[in-house]
Amino acid sequence: MHPSAAIVLLLLMYACGGRAQETFTVMSYNIENAFDTIHDAGKNDLEYCADGERKWSTSRLYKKLKGVSKVIAAADEKRPLDLIGLCEVENDTVMEYLTHRTPLSNMGYQYVMTQSDDERGIDVALLYSPFTFHPIEIQQIKPNIHKHTTRDILHVAGTLANHDTLDVYVLHLPSKRGGSEAQNLSMSICQQLKANTDSVRQHRQHPNLLIMGDFNAETRSPQLKLLTRSHHLIDRTARLTPGTYKYQGEWSTLDHILTHTTTLSHQQTRILNLPFLMETDKTNGGEKPYRTYLGPIYQGGISDHLPVVTRFTLQH
To answer: Could you give the percent of the chain with pLDDT greater than 90?
Structure first.
């Protein structure tokens, strides 16, 4: 059977409510500065405009987004991914291009995203298959931090094929740059997130939580410990190697998928380091993510992060 025909068959089966969906697969991916080429008033995005210093262009954006679509397609050879959390997406223009002007246009994905006060104008988004996840409530959680602007948290509650509710959070915490001040900002945001998940747990008879994104922190950080210890959330990336991000020759896992759920039984979590996502690290040895830019120099890769993929079994 031709691959496209197989995908159509799968989607028809999901749409008809069949029990063929035994698995539910989630990806978290920071796609590194996915900007359009138009300046947004009040945002520090000039370097990624058509006449900016990086010489960003529509063709370069299309190449990046086609690469992202290739990653999404390659993440599971048997069936389309159900949820994809994306970080560093500028706006709806970028998401419309991704969902309608790449090979993903044949897969029926829909999306929701934040519109935050981040000074560069980057946001988070959730791609979802409407055949396996049906949003019933969308919330944009604005960080309550004074004199600072950063990305909002996206909260999407939706129903699964077994009619259970899954509360999904996509976040991109502040960079490590700034030392203790940056960590305090991240902790403040995580405390706000914890308060929100506390509320969900009180109102849901059987709460199912999934939190994913770029935490800019590793498993043993105070931010992750606050979340995992409070709700018995499991960090599915805790023991994965070598990591999702490489800086000055050192790997670290900054991208995480946290879960507390009875409706989804964990099968496997992996860091997707497919050959086309990697390049030789000529300075430090080994390999590193094949990124779009190295400083101001255009490289042509997809991202400086690697995606994390978790596969579950859906409990009927």
So the answer is: 85
Q: Which domain holds residue 306?
A: 23-314
Q: Is residue 127 part of a domain?
A: yes
The pTM of this model reads: 0.93
pLDDT of residue 2: 45
> Which tokens hold the place of 172?
């991109």
CATH number at residue 155: 3.60.10.10
If one counts the domains in the chain, the total is 1
